[in-house]
Amino acid sequence: MSVKHLVLLSGGLDSTVMLAHIKDQYPEDAVTCVTINYGQKHHKEIDLALKIAAYYKCNSFCIPLAELFNSFNSALLMSNNKEIQNTLERGEVGNTYVPFRNGIFLSVLAGLADSHEYKGLWYGAHAEDASNYPDCSKKFYNTMKDAIFFGTANNIVLTAPWINMYKAEIVAKGRALKVPFGMTWSCYNGREKACGVCPTCKGRLEAFKANGIVDPLVYVGAI
Amino acid sequence: MSVKHLVLLSGGLDSTVMLAHIKDQYPEDAVTCVTINYGQKHHKEIDLALKIAAYYKCNSFCIPLAELFNSFNSALLMSNNKEIQNTLERGEVGNTYVPFRNGIFLSVLAGLADSHEYKGLWYGAHAEDASNYPDCSKKFYNTMKDAIFFGTANNIVLTAPWINMYKAEIVAKGRALKVPFGMTWSCYNGREKACGVCPTCKGRLEAFKANGIVDPLVYVGAI
User: Which DSSP category does A61 fall into?
Assistant: First the structure.
């Protein structure tokens, strides 16, 4: 029986490879992508997420939640003047953490999914994010998965397929699935070129390096 | 050490008695009440919640989420033309269920709490609601409590003090705490007088009857 899937698509590498994976695994199923405007400092990710959804022939929409996040404490937000922290120690919750962001996003998607006969709900948290972002940890995922299942009368099933995987493995998976990596955006800064020095740029560059391939994204300083 | 508490206050009986209980248990602590406008068919509850917070000398605010819930499927919503279902069988999820509403509310409050140095987060789900509202069940509460704790790096602690209690016990508790029951509103209809026949009116009337006291709220048909 065909199932409807709701995918949290940020426009980043992890969620894009996840979308490719879902389309590959369930070619007959309907997949809808949801991107959230939570007042992040740039719109680049959001614009790309909608383009990526179109590339994969999926319906997509953006939920405007910027006002809700207005008083949240995070350097990623437009409402916040803090400089983005470029170094994160292992286990440190830095100023790029947006308090309980994934909890909010997944709850909103669970409510929408339960309203419109979806069954599957997906998000792209992976093992490397867990150390600095508590709402990407395995403990959070396992308990949130249960909260969503029980809170929707055993209806909505949350899956985070990369929860035990490192970013290099996700790049390998994406390469096998012919993901257009150049369409994805990871950098915390929304300039024309990726900065190459923020925590997500660094993680992304290392993951490509580990695979012995070049990231097609254009970085500052590249020729 | 003094702790800051964030309380989900609907303006109904259960959350109001909970607020009285928190103020009684932690007289030195700061308590802030949050009410959510999710596009419910009437504003009566919201107005009363703000008045109840003032009665208990608490700061309070209302979060506007009506737009977000616009496409949700529930007879309680203004965006939905369904008649409110007056009879609920045990274990039935009726049309007054708002998909994953408490998951969304609690996630939003967890993010706010984690942004502003709160520690305690409270909501008033009770044992009788669990049968018809999956997001009031003990299973949901236990897993959501863990998801919030882990997702905020072991920071925010969710408590639902009535999770094992019946409504009659909450009325008894409220009576002992001298709660102004007449200020609270439970009816699904926002008319001048409570209807007396919707599921929450029925539950409320039975709870007062079990305590041998009269509900000070004015009901349709009362003299």
Answer: E
pLDDT at residue number B50: 97
Query: How many residues can be counted in chain B?
Result: 223
Closest-CA distance of chain B to residue A139, Å = 6
Amino acid at B36: I
Residue pLDDT, tens place only, B20-38 = 999 999 999 999 999 999 9
- Judge whether A15 and A170 are in contact, CB under 8 Å: no
Q: What is the edge-to-edge ordering of all strands in the sheet holding B30-37?
A: B59-64, B30-37, B4-8, B120-122, B157-159
Residue A116 reports pLDDT greater than 90? yes
The answer on pLDDT for A61 being more than 90 is: yes
Interface of B with A (CB under 8 A): 63-65, 67-69, 71-74, 93, 98-104, 106-108, 110-116, 134-135, 137, 139-140, 143-144, 146-148, 150-154, 156
Contact call for A114 and B108, based on CB within 8 A: no
Name every chain B residue with its beta carbon within 8 A of the beta carbon of A134: 150-154
Tell me if A190 is assigned to some domain. Answer: no
The candidate with the shortest Cα–Cα distance to A33, out of A105, A101, A104, A137, is: A105
Q: Is residue A46 part of a domain?
A: yes
pLDDT at B48 over 90: yes
CA torsion through residues A190, A194, A199, A200, sign: positive
Burial B19-43 (b: 16+ CB within 10 A, else e): bbbbbeeeeeeebbbbbbebbbbee
Which structural domain range is residue B22 located in? 4-181
Task: Return all residues near A89 (Cβ < 8 A) that are at least 6 apart.
Answer: none
Query: ipTM score of the complex?
Result: 0.95
Q: How many CB pairs under 8 A join A and B?
A: 138
By the 8 A CB rule, do A32 and A7 touch? Answer: yes
Residues B13, B143: Cα–Cα separation, whole Å: 25
In a domain, A171, yes or no: yes
pLDDT-based confidence at residue A222 (cuts at 50, 70, 90): low
Residue of A nearest to B136 (CA): A151
Q: Looking at residue B183, what is its pLDDT?
A: 96
CATH number of the domain residue B12 falls in: 3.40.50.620
Q: Of B100, B116, B137, which to mutate for an interface test with A (greatest number of A Cβ within 10 Å)?
A: B100
Number of domains in chain B: 1
Q: How far apart are CA A97 and CA B106, in angstroms?
A: 18
